[in-house]
Queue: 3 jobs
Job 1
Amino acid sequence: MFVSFEGIDGSGKTTQAELLVKRLADEGRDVLALREPGGTELGERIRELLLDGPAMSPWAEASLFAAARAELVAEVIRPAIDRGAVVVCDRYVDSSLAYQGVARGLGVERVLELNLAATGGLLPDRTFVLLLAPKDARRTTNDRIEREDAEFVRRVDDGYRRLVTMFPERCVAIDASRAPDAIAEEVRRELA
Ligand code: TYD
């Protein structure tokens, strides 16, 4: 099984990914926790370029995220799924669709096409999209992309809301304004 968590920065998705990983591990499952971009040697180096590097054009940015993802799928995710593990990813393709496709204006369809090529068509079984009004987000880090202005975050949020309606079978909209325990319980019920 392959599960991803998505949302704007400060939506609480990382907390939820960690809570799910802990619960599955406590149940004795073979579970693998991953974050994007990163998770491989190449991916970590691409991560530095993306989050700490120079300004870049939108397609360069989308292509670097896709390159890191291609490596992660080939080296880590597919082998884990093949051995029967549960893979929990903090961000995956939908981050590129919301940030690069919508907020950077490249188009959801074209960014999806790039990512389907990069991942061999691998999409999660379930994607939890944590929806939270940008004004309520608890922003923590301050990387190159997170330094974008409030209007950019509003577009990312808008992107995630569109993705939930575009992919209703895979994406589950989660009201992220509630307590972490209540959200974790909803995630548990959904996966049961
Ligand atoms: P991440 O390290 O997950 O930050 P956070 O702690 O906020 O979750 O991601 C770093 C930034 O990269 C974040 O602002 C979202 C952005 N991003 C994209 O723009 N496209 C992508 O495909 C991914 C995976 C992340």
Note: The chain has a mean pLDDT of 96.
Job 2
Amino acid sequence: MKRWLVFGLVLCLLLSGCTKEEACAQRTVFCMDTVMDIRIWGQERDAAMEAIVEMLHSLEKTWSATDADSVLSAYNRGEDVLDAQQKALLATAEQLRSQTGGAFDPKLGSLVALWGFYDDNHHVPSDQEIQTARNQTQWDLGAIVKGYAGTQVVEILARYDVDRAIVNLGGNVQTYGQKPDGQPWNVGIQNPAGGDSLGVLAVTGSMAVVTSGDYQRYFEQDGIRYHHILDPETGRPADSGLCSVTVLCADGAMADALSTALFVMGLEDACAYWQAHDDFEAIFVLSTGEIYATEGVVLSGCAFEVICREN
Ligand code: AMP
Ligand code: MG
């Protein structure tokens, strides 16, 4: 199912849209297999927009796992093609793999291909096929690159005279700066069950809001849903009792890697991980429909259980 192609614009309500009173540059681009929406306010908004769109297309060309001509594909073939910045992203990904106990694993490319998520040629593999694919290391940055793009957006915006921006990279939202009325940015969270948004998250300043969900990319066979977030321990779609995890974090790449990792971990281990770290907040939606949010989350429009810090 390719519902994820359109969810970028539909799921995250950018409730702080461009208004007539204040000039805003707005662009919709299709990149990294998703619809992206960019809104920038301030003097140099048009120049910043051009730089951001160019950066997004360049990231796609570099990190595409499906394009045989991408830098990543060449690297996966054993070619020495990475520049210093690209090596730094792999090092960050490796660090996040280790920090999450392997729940986020950027080397699952062979498994993702085996399940048919690259070309939509879906297939439920045998244990033997999974075992073989697990022994073949292929980098896949699909769980971090859009968040990393958000981090790059912030770096670009900081170089221009712009007041604020909100960028929706296919459901990964990056905010930048403060709204003039002092009000927070409002970011809608997708309801995994479909329909209206689950609730609205209030975000202050420059933050990344990233969601991983079993509804974003999946196929069904014999009445079973097989989604795209794989448990590195089993090589199969993570069966953690969660259907979505949203992470709010100052760093986009970390937010993205963590949303995937916490989804794999399940609520209990994810809460323990949050207790041990103080640099992000999270919202968890269980398959039962129950919602949990860590205590720093400001969420309206739905009932949820608050997860508090243990001292
Ligand atoms: P996300 O939507 O950010 O959770 O990323 C999911 C994408 O990352 C999948 O489509 C795969 O390409 C890849 N992936 C799947 N499972 C994992 C995992 N456990 N760790 C890292 N990448 C993964
Ligand atoms: Mg992710």
Note: Residues 1-14 have pLDDT under 50 and may be disordered.
Job 3
Amino acid sequence: MLASYAARERNSRGRLFPEEAPFLRSEFQRDRDRVIHSSAFRRLEYKTQVFVNHEGDMFRTRLTHSIEVSQIGRTVARALDLNEDLTEAICLAHDLGHTPFGHAGQEVLNDCMRQHGGFEHNLQSLRVVDLLEEKYAAFPGLNLCFETREGILKHCSRVNAALLGELGNRFLNGTQPGLEAQVANIADEIAYNNHDVDDGLRSGLITMDQLMQCRLFHKHYSGVIQHWPGLERRRLTHELIRRMINSLAVDLINTSRGKIASYGPGTADDVRNAGEGLVILSQEMAEMQQELKLFLRANLYMHEYVKNMTRKASEVIRTLFSVYSSQPDSLPESMGGNISAEGQVTGQSVFYRRIADYIAGMTDRFAIAEYEKHCGMHDERSRFFDNRTSRL
Ligand code: MG
């Protein structure tokens, strides 16, 4: 059933540590299952997508975001005769390295790590599956297949890519990842653009009137209102978002089919050497999606309320980094307390990397609890995250 250019386990570049073939499952199903059983995956439940976890139970978290990405990714992969299991594994794992408090957390941690190699959340996702998960006796991490790891590493600086061997090559020589990775990448964008519209409307920070300036929203709004004038607001919102996701997914499938057919790859490696991505939206749809993205950036992510939470989140991360750096004994033994003495004398970068790993792995609420513990409950700053005042 798979296209000749889909990823196949018999052509896989394999795992870092060779293992027996799985019984009854494919190699990529095994990868997906390993991701689901990882502790980093469970912690996504309490990590911010846009709204901090305690702001309301109805908003997306990194966990529900990852599941929505996977749902869109699987649909597209199946329609294109690609490897659905691999696509699902990549989608579910793509945000495993995300810090608490979303992008604010990652930017501050990168800033704190400036002298020590920096911090990239994509690279951190790879670090989680390659190194940080402690699940197996025989190897560190989850020992996933090359193709899954290739998909997880969406972006990477040239400096870091040079340290990654075969996996980093494409960032140095401009080749493409496999089609399953390309699907996961665009599924991520489709998912967050649409669920952020939903969460933005629910929060009241953006309005339908404002969204009318986005062609994609306007087009579907007109269509729905024509058929169901006076539709109740909540059903209207969901009907609109459902139609937007569907139109993006259908466009992606049709345009990619045409693009793949015109390039005519025979194998997955032909795809890697195609010189450009083959999983793409039509130009018109890409422009409409970009419009939506810019709208969300200007009106939701840069909204004063969200920016205020971002400032508080930055303060938490910055404070924790400084506390752990200056008082290594405050780190739990498993996360670097035991290397503190050695780290201060010799392996400085190892020491700071452990701190970054520890902070990046935290959930929002654990980071806030650590912050309150180290700053004192009565410190003015610890009231930053008072649930009663910050809840939407
Ligand atoms: Mg994502």
Note: Confidence is low (pLDDT under 50) at residues 341-346, 387-391.
